[in-house]
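YM 10:42: O-antigen/teichoic acid export membrane protein sequence, as discussed on the call
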Amino acid sequence: MLINRIKSKEISKYFNNALWLILEKGVRVIDAFFIGIWIANYLGPDDYGIFSYSEAFVYLFTTIAGLGLDQIVVKELVKTPEKRDQIIGTAIVLRLIGFIAMVSIVVPVIYFQQESETTIYVIGLLSLSVAFQSFKIIDFYFQSEVKSKYTAICNIIVISCVALFKVYLIVNLYSLLWFAFAILIEWLLLAIAYIIVYKGQRLSITKWKYDKKIAHSLFDKGKLLILGSVAAALYMKIDQVMIKEFMSEYHVGIYSVAVKLAGVWLFITVIITQSIFPSLVALRKENRGKFIIRLQKLYDLLMKIAVMACVLYTVFGNLIIDILFGEAYMESSELIGIYIWSIVFVFLSNASWGYYLNEGLEKIASFRLILGALLNISLNVYLIKEFGLKGAAYATLISYSVSSYFINFMFKRTRENFYLQTKAIINILNPKTWIKPL
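YM 10:58: structure's back
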């Protein structure tokens, strides 16, 4: 009876954690989707193209500042909670060093690219926001404790306030630069909110310490993931950068609408994988068999969500574009039916981190992302020139499928993961797997 009560308590803890993450991501969806649509309609394809290009450009370099630490910090906090202050303090220092490294690269790249003055200012504001993203390490601590409620409340309040600020900007006809400034303000307020809620748990930021040994350990574990994260950023965002180079900001704006519509669904995989990841770490330490069963259920659930979204957009894509974005963006309707199917492989990829990190396969995880990036860049160079925006959508779909799914069959150590993923695809037709997803 005692064991059953403990298990019930554990399940309840993860369920409540997931509920708060769902609520937070719901607010993010409203902001990114509905407010984002309003911004896209207000700015028009040209200015929205500049904004989307700048976001993609900065995102390519944000991974340098991240140093591949995200999941590693959560894992280390779960494994060694007694070293909390040293891990958090060290990780934040490393993130700030990463930000300085990022800026030292971005500045000369902008100079040699000879971007327009407006684009430079937008990129500058978005780049500054990365410094405040360092305090996301506090969020990782709460994730490790399965207490995302606290940071979720911070996110809900801040995102809601900034969303209202964006509405104010639209209603009062403010320029493009103000929307970039809104993103900077959002991350500044989030950093302050995270610190307040951390101290509210009777924890002190003055106890944070930089530890050379932990820094070396984190960097050693993360160095391959840095390369992998840079590669992931490349194959997630390079299409928008290359469209701007080969075509124009206008075409980036058209393409970005398809990306935005698909991106809404990615919030779901983030919610689920973030909430389940600590339990996967704990199960792997306790019993590998149970770990594999839980991972299979995670894959099953994500596949069902992804395929339902793909069918919805494939059938009703034209109508969705027409209702939400209007005549100015109707060219996007030709892309969404292609681009949306890439999320099947993005969902598989995100869930795979639970396998790679817990099985010590960081090298292979990074290699697959590097291969995906190289394939995506190569395909974009050829397909954009030959087929325009449709070519970019096909390049994304093909490269995602290779790096997230097919590559797992190539290595003996990841073949088990390939079979788990394949079973999840097959299980879409299995009614039993729909009854009790997790």
